Amino acid sequence: MKTIHHFVLLLLSAFALQAQPAVAPPVPPPATFAPPAVPVVAVPAANGQKMIPKGMLRLEAAPLDQALNFFAELVGRTLIRPATLPNVSINFRAQTDLTHIEAIEALTTLFAANDIAVFAVGEKFVKAVPAANAMKEGVPFSFLESIQMPEADTFTTKVVKLKNIRPSEIVPVLQPLAKLQSGITPIDSSHTLVLRDYSSNVKRMLELIEKVDVLVPLEEEVELIPIKYALAADIASVMGSLTAGGATSSATRTGTSGGTAGGAPSVGAFGSGLNTGGTPSGAPPGGGGGTGGAGGQNQPGGGQRTLQQRLQQSTGRSGVTGASAPILGETKIISYERSNSILVIAGKQEMIVAKKLLAQLDTVQQQVLIEAIIMDVALGNEKEIGISIAQQKKQNTTLFGSAVSSALGMKHGGGFYTSNSIVNLNSAGLNYWGFVGNNWEAAISAVSTDNRVNILSRPRIQTSHAEMGQFFVGETHPYITGTTTDITGSNRSTYQDKKIGITLEVLPFINPDGLVVMDINQVVQDIIGEKVIDGNPVPITAERSANAKIAVKDREAVMLGGFIRTKKTKTVSGVPVLKDIPLLGLLFSNTADTMDRKELIVMMRPTVLPTPESASAAAQMERDNLPGVKRAEANERAIEAQELKDLEKFLRDEEKKNKNKKP
Fold first, then answer.
1. Which CATH architecture has domain 2-140?
2. Residues of the chain with pLDDT under 50
3. What is the pLDDT of residue 404?
4. Predicted local distance difference test score (pLDDT) of residue 118
5. Beta-strand (E) ranges in 258-359?
6. At what angle do helices 167-174 and 199-212 cross, to 10 degrees?
7. Element housing 515 (H / E)
8. Rounded to whole angstroms, how far apart are CA atoms 296 and 243?
9. What is the pLDDT of residue 276?
10. Phi and psi dihedrals of 308, rounded to 5?
11. What share of the chain is helix, strand, coil (3-state, %, to 5)?
């Protein structure tokens, strides 16, 4: 008791030494306003800046009740306290001069250090409660900014509106600064954070929120990159395989149907052969059964492989696996096919890698002119030597009214005696007819025939590196697949179109050394006849096909395949026993030797065209080597020139007529 009285006397002496005039008790400021560094417990404005010399403010083992009463007198408010406050002694001694406000801040901090929370209640009271119960009290709200918050440990409540960060995300950051662990309440739905703690802790939290709740700069870069030499969807598919999420296409290109009207076939991928998917023509909805046609060849649908599929196939062949993390990480690749562009959303480093890959992928691909040389040679060699002898002369009257030999009839057969029999004699060989004595007739024939048929085809196709090229030249023939009979007994046929000609498919890969690796599928078809099945003529075709993967250098030829077939036939007929006598047997026999030989060879020759200029020059060279094309172009130019002359003459005549009509 003596200590607190001594402190009060010293405090009153200090106020007297200031020689300040007496002033009326001031009205405290509104709850919504407080000057900088003013505690929540408001004090009279006139007393706020009064100085207390160092050493004058001193508490030595002061009971809590006396310290609280002194604090109430210092702030000019009535103290309200429960009976459950801890029984502690207060010790404090100021080492510097303090203002009235600084003294209040020091005492509130001292109370907080002893687990006692003090706060204003209305305008006339100050309340002290245990710190553990402060969360349950109706503590006034603070409307001060962080720079205005007092450093004292006055219990307060602050509502913070966040702008750029979710309240629940910032709670772990603020938790180490809170003295009361349950004093931070996040409300994500309204981006609101409620802070209930001592003012110094709340001040630190507000300062941290100002640093953290900022607009985060965009970590990802967004760039729309135009694709110049390839399809955006193909590039996006390739780059998407290097990301964690894969590629996404913003639009789907409207494609065209791979089939043709009337069931015309299209050429498929390698190994699938050819196929004709027919379309019935004129078939009624219902009807009786009929004859089924022969099965067509394989329809290639979906023969085109995308760049991504080819890369996956090549990767699979080489045994490469994608076990490592994608090099583009979480990059998003979106193809915008309308402008043939790629939208890349990536981090700074990933964007650099993506641009580098795009520059390497989006390049002008080398082109290659592939020339197939198909040589089909048929050789035929036939020799026939024969003698026919008849004893009794038979008179046969022809339209010429003369007799002909029965031996001649024996030689050439019964069909020889026609109106054209003499004309039908082979004029290319030796044919002799004569008499031996009065009763013998002889017919001698010696014929040698040599047939040669040469067929040379040179289909050509130009395509780019790793792009499949397809070429077909020939005809389309209707092919009966079946007949149906309706209830009236009428027959209707269904058909499909079948392509007959030369089909060439090639998928080239050009390496930097000038070596061209080609996947080739070539089919050559010819009609060699027809066969009637159930009254329907069905074409008989001869087909030669080759399917291979070859490697050849630029401008060099390689044989894709070949076929050689030789057939020899020897026929001997004559008089039994006599025809077998050496030398003399020739007089009684007929010998025919036939040899058929077919040779087919297919050769391929690629010509690499590294630039569009070289491709244009190659096209001009090919055109110059075609005299028929040049002649047709010259004729077309002459016709156009004549048409222009006629038009100019017509315009001049019309102009003269118009001038003559003027008065």
1. 3-Layer(bab) Sandwich (3.55)
2. 1-40, 45-46, 252-304, 307, 311, 314-323, 393, 397-404, 406-412, 414-427
3. 47
4. 86
5. 332-336, 341-347
6. 130
7. strand 515-533
8. 44
9. 36
10. -65, -40
11. 30, 35, 35
List, in sequence order, every residue forming a beta bridge with 346; answer none if it has no partner.
221
- What per-residue confidence (pLDDT) applies to 288? 40
Model confidence pLDDT, tens digit, residues 490-500: 777 787 888 88
Of the candidates 82, 85, 99, the residue with the CA atom closest to the CA atom of residue 15: 99
Q: Which helix (H) or strand (E) holds 510?
A: strand 491-510
- 622: which DSSP letter? H
Indicate the helix (H) or strand (E) that contains 235: helix 232-240
DSSP-assigned beta bridge partners for residue 90: 62
Look at residue 640 in the predicted model and tell me its pLDDT.
92
pTM for this model (two decimals): 0.47
Q: d(Cα 367, Cα 295) in Å, to the nearest integer?
A: 38
Please, is 539 exposed, middle or buried when counting C-beta atoms within 10 Å of its C-beta (0-12, 13-18, 19+)? Answer: middle
Q: Look at residues 48, 67, 78 and name the one whose alpha carbon lies nearest to residue 116.
A: 67
377 and 453 Cβ atoms separated by less than 8 Å: yes
Beta-strand relationship, 367-390 and 460-464? antiparallel
Contact between 585 and 574 (Cβ < 8 Å)? yes
Please give the torsion angle defined by the CA atoms of residues 130, 132, 136 and 140, in that order, rounded to the nearest 10 degrees: 60
Domain ranges of the chain: 2-140, 259-301+364-388+429-611, 626-663
* Distance (Å) of CA 71 to CA 68, 111, 304: 5, 10, 91
The pLDDT tens digits for 351-383 are 999 999 999 989 888 899 988 888 878 777 777
Contacts of 234 (CB under 8 A, 6+ apart): 306, 307, 308
* Spatial CB neighbours of 300, under 8 Å, sequence gap ≥ 6: 265, 266, 267, 268, 269, 272, 273, 274, 275
Q: What angle do CA 498, 500, 504 make, to 5 degrees?
A: 110
How many Cβ atoms from other residues are within 10 Å of residue 521's Cβ? 25
